[in-house]
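User: Structure please.
Assistant: Input sequence and predicted structure:
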Amino acid sequence: MSTAPEQEKGASGIHDEQRHHHHPKLDAKTKVIANADAKLSNPLRGIPHDRLMADVEVFAKERGLIHILSDLQKGALVAQDPQSYNHLDVFTEEDRKVLRDEVTHKWKQTKTLYYMVVMSSLAAAVQGMDEAVINGAQILYPKQFGIGSDSKRDGWLIGVVNSAPYLCCATISCWLTDPLNNWLGRKKTIFVTCLISFLTCIWSALTNSWWHLFIARFFLGFGIGPKSATVPVYAAECSPAPIRGALVMMWQMWTAFGICLGDLIDLVFYFIPDRPGVTGLNWRLMLGSAGIPGLIVCLQVLFAPESPRWLISKGRYEEAFNELCRLRFSRVQAARDLYYIHILLEAENEMKKGRNRLVEMFTIPRNRNAALASWIVMFGQQFCGVNVIAYYSSNIFLQSGFTQVAALASSLGFGALNWIFALPAIFTIDTYGRRNLLLFTFPCMAICLLITGFSFWDGFEKGRIAGVSIGIYLFAIFYSPGEGPVPFTYSAEAFPLYIRDIGMSFATATTWFWNFVLSITWPSLVLAFKPQGAFAWYAAWCMILWVLILLFVRETKGKTLEELDQVFAVPARVHAAYGLRQIPYGIKKFVLFQNPVPEELYLAEGDSEASSGADEQGKKEVKEDVGGA
């Protein structure tokens, strides 16, 4: 939840000025949502000075904060107008310097905030390690458990064991996120989920049958699911607005780092010999070691601040102010964020009264369009084929002719590239836009998957190995800045605030369910269609997803809350027709190197001539260049 009004624009944290737009075909319910979200963008806008000061005094008396009334009054003025400190005498020079540095030196933050960033990054790495260590272990444990043959039965059983955590995430644990956060708070939820990750990783290392390993890994899902939804929210709620978007992005980046670290652990522990009475010590250490970072996070979180927004939602205002003082440099900043979060929560609660939010997510066109776009990008994150490589790259490299050690080393190469090329996404996602990144990278990923699969037809071992390696590594390079970071960022900003928590649960459950489907079916898919057909299957899905993104995924880069309501209120058929018209435009611009005139789907209200055209077509809203749509 944003803590500065000028930044309440979704996960991206873009600092554009508010703009108001016109749409000729908004239905009545969508207009209500648009008006409510406009209020949520800054509920303090337009309140006279005397009334604002009186409201703050009443708030301070009701919440037992009268001893910080002067800080709250200054904070409310900055919350209402972020530039007010420049022309009001109530602010000291020290206040002005801190508030100015907040924008001009946005990465200059308190030690407590960076402690929280380190903890959140390590929690994301835990997530990646939980997912990755099975990659190396599965070339070792199946034979010990009697499921290492090429039979269809054994292929399914390996898939069942590998996919067990994601079955739990999709069916149970993701839906526990909201009650856990409500009962325990962000800190304790992170503690509990990381503790579960640690214990279940140790449990996995002690199993002696495939079904026992399946049970242990299923319970690992109780650590993975809620943690994946809680940590990004916790980081966003503790962070100041100028760097909030980058920190949301870091979840994906450090998850990729955890996958890389898990692949490294697989390679290191492969060489550990068995000890008397212990068979399979190497794969047991692989699975067990993934729990160590989770234990470190459990210790770290004890000293981290609780989410101020969660404390305010529970009426614990004094504690929230104290935590904000730890996270900010000045009491004025802390008071501003405290009062603004309070006002925003009041507005949100007012919106939710008497409404069935789950039903409205699908019955109101604006919400339904956001849900469809979110479902497409979340589904695409799995069916682009990335987790086939993340979970089974060691087996894939083995099939192409690598030795076991070389296969593990090559998997480490994939993990390293996946992490390294996730770093630029912090900048490219807000430079080129979410939709453009997806439209560019999906065809490239399809080509890379075809290279990988068709290389298995090469009769020369060195050529086959080279083709498979090049295909997989290029896939990582194209995936990491595109479909890697976009889905969670997009889903976090697409839904209106009053259904955002339900929308994110829906989106998270979607990605974990299809993660489960992908991981359980891959071994059997390879047996049935060989690697060539299996990789071609996911290459085809990349192209299908490219079409779905072109038709139904709208651009959200740099949009305010009001603009997002306008963008998602465009009827799906209108946006699909617009997407089809982008194909000849793209051919002329990027293939024939011509300079065609871009179509503008969204036009500002002030563009009277174009706005008139919008009334005729029902297609034009907020200004958006077709190349950046």
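The chain has 27 helices and no strands.
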